[in-house]
């Protein structure tokens, strides 16, 4: 016999995989947070490198900011 699959839309009560939904949302929030932190660290390092006049010091500052965010968050 043919199997019965629930093809009704979610609005009508189709089963949802809430565990998978929550893990995907958690990953999205984590990636968004680290994307914003890395962009802000990059802008700060670029400004520091421009005004202080050093490429190496800007790279060091970028790494320091990212590590500080890692330990603080």
Automatic annotation (TrEMBL):
Pfam families hit by this protein: COX4_pro_2
Domain of life: Bacteria
Classification via SUPFAM superfamilies: Bacterial aa3 type cytochrome c oxidase subunit IV
Keyword Glycosyltransferase annotated: no
Transmembrane segments: 25-48, 54-72
InterPro entries, alphabetized: Cyt-C_aa3_sf, Cyt_c_oxidase_su4_bac-aa3
Keyword line: Membrane, Transmembrane, Transmembrane helix
Domain Cytochrome c oxidase subunit IV bacterial aa3 type: 4-50
Name the UniProt record assigns to this protein: MFS transporter
Organism for this UniProt entry: Phyllobacterium zundukense
